[in-house]
Design a protein that fits this description.
The chain contains 6 helices and 27 strands. The longest helix is centred in the first third of the chain and has 70 residues. With about 475 residues, the chain is of the alpha/beta class. Helix 4 crosses helix 6. Strands 5, 7, 8, 10, 11, 13, 14, 15, 17, 19, 20, 22, 24 and 26 form a 14-stranded parallel sheet that branches.
Length: about 475
């Protein structure tokens, strides 16, 4: 009897142990299956992330391929790369162990930019990038560019060229096609001991601040000269080397001489700016108020910012009435030249002044064209039809963006403050600073200035990416 009871207990224990073992095995199997599934998911996701990163790298390579084409030769047609456009051009490249392909589309935009879209595909995953590219003249790499002679004379003439917008320094401080004339060693160019004033720029922390700031001390200048050009102390003096200029106290780093002429300044598409001004209704209220104040029904009904010489003279008179303080907005186009009479003031916010002729600032007058970060790439002042920019003694010129003119002259105690660059394409004296204070802070955003035509075939070009984004 005791033996039978013992066997029955052992049988019951064997069944319980077997059940426990089965439960443990099931748990291990379930855990193992989950682990294997999780590892497979991680491997799949890692592979997808790797292929996605590779596809983005392929798309990036496509954009760089487009830039090299725009600066060089077309890959599949006997045309210069700057004029090459396509809706679908593909190349295959390898990224690690993967084979990828990018497909390019290049189309023109209305403002002169080339919109480059690059789709990179690796392992069935596609990433897309879009870049706005401007095909520029290398002349736009210079802070101060004169196609002919750049002349600095009459102490205390001071010219200061500094960087702006996060760049270490302008690529070229001064470019002169036929020579740089310094009328005596007392004429200062980037002299750290000479005080100067500079206002705020379009992306400063307090863009509304009008108080002067003191930027860092200016560094030595790089001078870019065309074939046969030189740096002299005057017309009749001998050419001077950088070492000789430094011995005279000129703050110069080096002189770069090109074997040929300097790249020409770009041409301006005047029609582009006429259309922009015709569509600018931001000054309609000012036009209406000026028309009613002066009894001119045509000006009162004017909604655009494209002005005849007569309309512009009336508007300037209204803006400079004793109680006037209004600022114009956006792109303003004048179908003629402009003279800002003595003591008068003109301010344009977030736009540009485009004239079909010479702009003269009389003694004591003031012209300000300022930008915000949103309008930073717009030009500041453009004089078409071989117009010049003349700044009289005591006048003030403050401009954000590109200043484009046939010739530039500042005399006496005039003050010029440019955040952008100065391009003067005239064949005479391109730039003449005769006793004025000229401060130029080079902003690389000028390379994305809209409305400039691409250089003609055969001329050197640079492809500048103004904006870069990934598409969904």
């Amino acid at each position: 009897m005791p033996t039978r009871i013992k066997r029955r207990a052992l049988c019951e224990c064997d069944g319980t142990a077997l059940l426990v073992v089965l439960i443990v095995l099931l748990a291990i199997a379930a855990w193992s299956s989950s682990f294997v599934w999780l590892m497979n998911q991680q491997l799949t996701r890692a592979g997808a992330r790797y292929r996605s990163a590779a596809a983005l790298a392929v798309a990036d390579a496509g954009v760089h391929r487009a830039l090299s084409i725009l600066e060089g030769e077309a890959p599949d047609a006997p045309v210069p790369g700057r004029t090459w456009r396509t809706e679908e051009y593909a190349e295959t490249i390898h990224v690690g162990s993967f084979e990828g392909q990018f497909t390019l589309a290049l189309v023109d935009d209305l403002d002169g930019a080339v919109v480059v879209t690059s789709a990179g595909e690796v392992g069935g995953i596609v990433r897309r990038l879009r870049a706005r590219v401007y095909v520029d003249s290398p002349a736009q790499l210079a802070a101060l560019y004169g196609a002919s002679v750049v002349r600095l004379e009459h102490p205390p003439a001071a010219t200061v060229i500094l960087p702006y917008g996060g760049v270490d320094a302008p690529w070229i401080q001064v470019a002169a096609g036929r020579g740089l004339w310094l009328a005596g060693p007392d004429v200062a160019i980037n002299n750290p001991s000479v005080p100067f004033r500079a206002g705020s720029g379009p992306v400063d922390a307090l863009p509304e601040a009008q108080a002067s700031t003191v930027p860092p001390d200016p560094g030595p200048v790089r001078v870019w000269l065309g074939r046969g050009a030189s740096v002299r102390l005057d017309r009749g003096s001998q050419p001077l080397s950088a070492e000789e200029l430094r011995a005279l106290g000129v703050n110069i780093e080096r002189i770069v001489q090109t074997p040929g002429p300097l790249p020409a300044v770009p041409e301006v598409d005047g029609g582009f700016y006429r259309r922009r001004a015709a569509g600018n209704t931001g000054n309609a209220g000012t036009n209406e108020a000026a028309g009613k104040f002066l009894g001119d029904d045509g000006l009162a009904r004017k909604h655009d910012s494209l002005y005849s010489v007569r309309e512009w003279d009336l508007l300037l008179g209204y803006l400079n009435r004793p109680s006037g303080s209004e600022a114009l907005q956006g792109i303003v186009y004048v179908a003629g030249g402009m003279t800002l009479d003595e003591g008068r003031r003109l301010q344009i916010d977030g736009g540009a002044l485009i004239t079909e002729g010479t702009v003269r600032l009389a003694k004591g007058s003031s012209l300000e064209v300022t930008h915000s970060a949103a309008t930073r790439t717009l030009p500041g002042l453009v004089t078409l039809d071989k117009g010049e920019l003349l700044v009289s003694p005591g006048a003030t010129l403050r401009v954000h963006g590109l200043v484009y003119s046939q010739a530039f002259e500042a005399t006496g105690d005039a003050r010029v403050d440019i955040v952008g660059s100065l391009l003067a394409g005239g064949s005479g004296f391109s730039v003449n600073n005769a006793g004025a204070s000229v401060v130029i802070r080079y902003d690389p955003a000028v390379l994305g200035t809209p409305g400039l035509l691409a250089p003609p075939p055969g001329a050197p070009v640079i492809a500048w990416v103004a904006r870069w984004e990934e598409l969904p």
